[in-house]
Amino acid sequence: MTSEEALNHFLGVFPKRWRCRYRSLLGTKKGKETFLNDLWHQFEKRIDEAKVVQDIPQKAWSLPAFSFSGNGEFGKKEKSIQDAFSSIGDGSLIIDSTGKYGIYQPEDMVDDIKYIII
Fold first, then answer.
1. 1-31 per-residue burial string, b: 16 or more CB within 10 A, e: under 16
2. 83 within 8 A of 66, measured Cβ to Cβ
3. What is this structure's pTM?
4. In sequence order, what are the residues at sequence separation of 6 or more whose Cβ sits closer than 8 angstroms to the Cβ of residue 104?
5. CA–CA gap between residue 86 and residue 98 (Å, rounded)
6. CA 104 to chain centre
7. DSSP string spanning 29-80?
8. What is the pLDDT of residue 116?
9. Cα(28)–Cα(56) distance, rounded to whole angstroms?
10. What is the largest distance, in Å, between two alpha-carbon atoms of the chain?
11. Least packed by Cβ within 10 Å: which of 5, 20, 47, 61?
């Protein structure tokens, strides 16, 4: 699965309005930039809280992953969620290569990291 395919699946964590909006952005370079900018400010407010959990399963930490960053990094391939998590910064999203598990770190809010399962 490509990073865009995994992200497309992961976007199921959003209510329909935002899910459709984000999916429409993935088709263009400018749209991807808009998506990445939302990682800084709007992303957290739009997540369906019913998908947020205390932690992802232990087995998920070793899965291959993709990372996305408000600093302009879109779909960087990562060896594992654990490897990516150890190096992410504010305004970042990590998803496993199937888009089932995700970790979101809001800007300037390390204590507010969200663990998400689709």
1. eebbebbbbbbebbeeebbebbbebbeeeee
2. no
3. 0.92
4. 39, 43, 44, 47, 92, 93, 94, 113, 114, 116
5. 20
6. 6
7. HHHHHHHHHHHHHTHHHHS-GGGEES---GGGGGS-EEEEETTS-EEEEES-
8. 94
9. 31
10. 36
11. 20
In tens digits, the chain (118 residues) has pLDDT values of 899 999 999 998 898 999 999 999 999 999 999 999 999 878 888 988 999 999 999 999 999 999 999 888 999 999 999 999 998 888 899 999 999 999 999 877 656 899 999 9
* Of the candidates 57, 106, 107, 99, the residue with the CA atom closest to the CA atom of residue 82: 57
Task: Quote the tokens at residue 40.
Answer: 């800084």
Asked if residue 65 lies in contact with residue 10, where contact means CB atoms within 8 angstroms, the answer is: no
Q: Which two tokens stand for residue 37?
A: 């900018």
